[in-house]
Amino acid sequence: MARTRLYRNGTLELKDFPVHEISDYVCEPTCTVWLDLCDPTSDDFEMIAEEFGLHALAVEDAGHEHQRPKLDRYRTHLFLSAYAVCAEPDGSLDTTEIAVFITPNALITIRKGERFDIQQVVDRWDEAADLAEHGVGFLLHGLLDYLVDGHFNAVQDLDDRIEALEDLLFEDGRDEIRTVQRSSYELRKNLVRVRRVVLPMREVVNTLLRRDLHVVSEPMLPYYQDVYDHVLRATEWTESLRDMVTSLMETNLTIQGNRMNLIMKKVTSWASIIAVPTAVTGFYGQNVPYPGFGTHAGFYESTAVMVVLSAVLYVSFKRKDWI
């Protein structure tokens, strides 16, 4: 599947025209071409490599999955690898890889599956049609703005989930304790995934702002600066959330340890109280004469000793909040 667009002098002139017609426009300085390929074949890669003069290493990276987010510079073009992130309702994260070739008057996007909603990027281009005169810089900005907004939304969703988890941290229910333990581990895994995607984007956008690349024209600089600001905010937010999750897990372990100490303290206190009757009855159970041996008075005296000593221990433990 392929989608195409042709902008001439800042005006959208053609949509979804045949791919083989790209060669008719790609050499015209007044034209800007967008080509989108979803799950391209080896023949598709050969076609775009020949049509746009792409470097073999860049084409190879575009064909392989699990590339790190990066911006590679070649003699005639740039190669961008990035990820779209979407937070699912069940708390999981869906990451989709996209590869982008950036030439002086063409933008080629390579999607690794249908999960990447390219239509939202197209909608952003249509909403800012007055910037289309800035060519590839305009198209690339719409794509980056969509990607970074997705990163920001994913981080915000993780922040909301961490706050909800903090409310359960001091609950005593068994289900709540298990939820905190399981969710905190899942949040930590998701934050690691988001961090791997978000942090490299700071370097990517910062490199694009360099004037020697001639990708971002002067009027587009404020728009790219805004994207860069969002990248920095998402990066700083991700780092702070990682610290929060670590603190959450450590606090949970501390609370569980305190609860265990409290339980052990109560069990030990009751065991001490129960040990008093055991000791008294054991003493009076000796097969030797003792005061009150064989009389009712001895029974009453031993019973009184057990009750009094048990009461004294109970009151003493109660005052120390051990029971």
Automatic annotation (TrEMBL):
Recorded superkingdom: Bacteria
InterPro entries: CorA_cytoplasmic_dom, CorA_TM1_TM2, MgTranspt_CorA/ZnTranspt_ZntB
Family statement: Belongs to the CorA metal ion transporter (MIT) (TC 1.A.35) family.
Membrane topology, from the record: Multi-pass membrane protein
Keywords, sorted A to Z: Cell membrane, Membrane, Transmembrane, Transmembrane helix, Transport
Lineage of the species this protein comes from: Bacteria, Bacillati, Actinomycetota, Actinomycetes, Kitasatosporales
Cleavable signal peptide: none
Primary location: membrane
Transmembrane segments: 267-285, 297-317
Classification via PANTHER family: CORA FAMILY METAL ION TRANSPORTER (EUROFUNG)
Cellular compartment(s): Cell membrane
Protein name in UniProt: Magnesium transporter CorA family protein
Keyword Membrane: yes
